[in-house]
Amino acid sequence: MNIDAEMKTSDTMGPQKELSGNEFAEKVPILPVRDMVAFPKMNVPFMISFTSAPMIESIMETDHIVGLLTVKDQDAEDPVPGQLYEVGTVARILHAKKKENGAMVALMHGMHRFKVTTWHPGNPYLMADVAYAPETVETGLELEALQRQLTETVKAVLTMIPDTPKEAIESIQRIKDPLQLAYVTALNINLPLEKRQSILEMDSVSEKMRELLLHLSREKEVLDISRRIQSEVHEKMSKSQRDYVLRQQLKAIKEELGESDATPAPEADVYANRLQDADMPEEARKEAERELERMQQMSPQSAEYPIIKTYLDWLIDLPWQTLSEESGDIAAARRILEADHYGLEDVKTRLVEYMAVRHLVRDRKPASPEQDERDEKSAMGVILCLVGPPGVGKTSLGRSVARALGREFTRMSLGGVHDEAEIRGHRRTYIGAMPGRIIQAIKRAGTRNPVFMLDEIDKVGQDWRGDPSSALLEVLDPAQNSSFRDHYLDVDFDLSEVIFIATANQLDTIPGPLRDRMEVIQLDGYTALEKLEIAKRHLVPRQLAAHRLKDEEVTFMQDALLKIIHDYTREAGVRNLERHIAAICRKSIVQLSENGWSHVLVTTKMVRDYLKKERFESEQTEPITLPGIATGLAVTSVGGDILYIEASRMPGKGRLSLTGQLGAVMKESAEIAFSYVRSKADRFGIDAAVFEKSDVHVHVPAGALPKDGPSAGVAMTMALVSLFSGRPVRGDVGITGEITLRGRVLPVGGIKMKALAAHRAGLKTVVLPKRNQKDLAELPEEVLAEVAFVMVDQIDEAITTHSMTRR
Predict the structure, then answer these.
(1) Cβ neighbours of residue 203 closer than 8 Å, sequence gap 6 or more
(2) Cα 230 from Cα 407, distance rounded (Å)
(3) For the segment 615-643, what is each residue's pLDDT rounded down to a tens digit?
(4) Domain annotation covers residue 619
(5) Residue 772 sits in the same domain as residue 633
(6) 478: which DSSP letter?
(7) What is the pLDDT of residue 19?
């Protein structure tokens, strides 16, 4: 209870009518008191909470008598008998005033001490049967001596406390009643709540005074020591050292109490010992010793002192010589890769080869020692770059490599990094300088040879702050990274033992010199059957475990997984597939917990109920019937995709308009296609005069997305031939290839991703350049079995084959 500023404690308000033992009520209402103890013979103000205010109002209407008991457990919101002390004070309510918030301020006069005999859980408030417990007031010289000693000691203590009013000291001296003196002293000195309660519970006034004298003597001694310590500290301090006064005081207190430990070693000595134990290269050790010497000659209050401390911490804590023991079990490494990832056979084979070469080069001695270092770096310093759409497992492959080799794994996301200092660090001349993220990641790994994943290397930015990709050139060059120099450390750090694996969604945005440092491994995405196996082996068990579900509680049918794959996800990876599986797990938990189901069997119907309307059509249910539309195939940052080419003509003067945010190369392909169709109009059965009277508009939908590249040339030619001949292009045919003015169809890249996109979209035929025949060997058997590939060398072959409907 807080004391209201409007009502002050006073023991000089004049005599109050005391109740004799016979007048004492046997049953009284009980008011719990927090953070204080109410004593007899005292006027005490209380702040009454709004929950207890009705009780006080009720008492004010009767005899104004209430029992005050201190709460044992201060955290108890609504104390019950076991949470209250059973010795308290009966008080008379002298005055009460209600506040605006419903609380109340009450002034009470403590009259007699009592003990609870029986509790009556009251309604609406607590009641108790109590017994009057008067204190024993001795007489004689001993009590008089105790009273005089207590008065003098209280006066001495209050005098030593700063800002103590003179009126308080004078009021203590005027008290003649020994019991009142004891209670006033207990209320006004610094006593714990439990100690005050024990003073109240003591029967003998002499015993109360002796306990108070013991505490006051201890308090007086502490105050004496504090004043002496304060004086000693001020003598030792200069004006520039006042900021560590508290530390000096603590030291002096420990010395006075005889508890001071051995003098701690200065920080410079601590760093000297750490430096002696650190296994560091000679260059780094010399630099650390030089900085340590500067630190020893510097005041701890110097602004540069913490900067040197931070620098020494970095130098000493880096794993200069710490290496993880690498596993050479290639069979075990292959088993780990197979267990962690389904499919991606070419990628896993290359990773196994990479690990096998590293193991063999380390174990076998070279034929010519002078070529040892160069050959070893050439064989072992290969930087792998995993390129593919999101969600195909690039980052998880890096983790599997680390697990297979028995090395630590660390990663750094390069997406949105614009500042070169993020890679090389800031020079120590700058405020808040730190090492670059390469060194920070090495320190986190705790070894000098972790598997280091450089995520999203294709999204490194370049602006006025620098070119981070240029800083990466040294990091990813096996011939240079053995002496990588961070700007903050300014000493060489050997990165040659680190296995760097980069990831990217596309190669086009990676600068040429940086791309030349890396060996590119393409991850083109998964077929529907591969996604099904991944879901059954990895995604479903992982989501069941993440949601704390048991196998016997939720079961996914194979048809349900296929429905999610075909109708709700159309992606190269499996990230959205896992999200949908997680959504079904969440909804299954609701059925188990709310509706009392014992088992959830996820069927195709349940998938439709849980995930609502299908997002994609699994087949081309609406074939193209209008002339002037062709289905192209493209490679985007999220994998392969189908691309519709639309052409329309209107009366005009032979102009060509292009829309859809096309790049320069794609615009040139459209112009080449238009020129070729005009030049071969007779061959396609088109009246050449129609070109002079018509304007042509070619549009590629999804205009918000930029598009470029030559691979849409054949599809644009097909759309234009369809437009002018009136023969629609078949809707189940996908087309890709670059066209020349002679009608040649040139090869293009990304055949695997384009074929997978056609397969996902339900296309039955794909027209490819004949020179891309060799790329079909990379396609999964499932795609080759369900999609017919037509290889053409001239555009006429594409038009006269199965690509267009007959008139």
Answers:
(1) 133, 135, 136
(2) 57
(3) 765 444 456 778 889 999 888 665 677 88
(4) no
(5) yes
(6) T
(7) 45
pLDDT at 125: 81
Q: Which band of pLDDT confidence, cut at 50, 70 and 90, is reported for residue 464?
A: low
Q: What pTM did the predictor assign? A: 0.56
Asked if residue 596 belongs to a domain, the reply is yes
Q: Which two tokens stand for residue 562?
A: 């296929």
Q: How many domains does the chain have?
A: 6
The first and second tokens of residue 403, run together, are 């697990």
Q: Please indicate, yes or no, whether residues 370 and 483 belong to a single structural domain of this protein.
A: yes
Residue range(s) defining the domain that contains residue 683: 629-800
Q: Burial-class residue 107 by CB neighbours within 10 Å (0-12, 13-18, 19+).
A: buried
The answer on pLDDT for 2 being more than 60 is: no
**Cα–Cα distance measured from residue 770 to residue 786, given in angstroms and rounded to the nearest whole number:** 20
The whole-number pLDDT of residue 259 equals: 60
Is 533 found in the same domain as 517? no
Residues 397 and 293 reside in one and the same domain:
no
Residue tagged active-site, from 324, 588, 669, 711: 711
Asked if residue 502 lies in contact with residue 386, where contact means CB atoms within 8 angstroms, the answer is yes
Average pLDDT over residues 260-276: 70
Query: 208, 563, 707, 754: which one is catalytic?
Result: 754
Q: What's 401-452 look like in SS3?
A: HHHHHCCCEEEEECCCCCCCHHHHCCCCCCCCCCCCHHHHHHHHHCCCCCEE
CB 575 within 8 A of CB 390: yes
How far apart are the C-alpha atoms of 47 and 264, rounded to whole Å?
A: 50
Note whether 571 and 516 are same-domain residues.
no
Q: How far apart are CA 499 and CA 62, in angstroms?
A: 87
| DSSP collapsed to 3 states, 63-104 | CCEEEEEEECCCCCCCCCHHHECCEEEEEEEEEEEECCCCCE
Given this model, what pLDDT does residue 372 score?
54
Q: Is 754 noted as a catalytic residue in this protein?
A: yes
In angstroms, the CA 559 to CA 542 distance is: 19
711 flagged as catalytic: yes
More confident residue, 117 or 614: 117
The one-character DSSP state at 794 is B
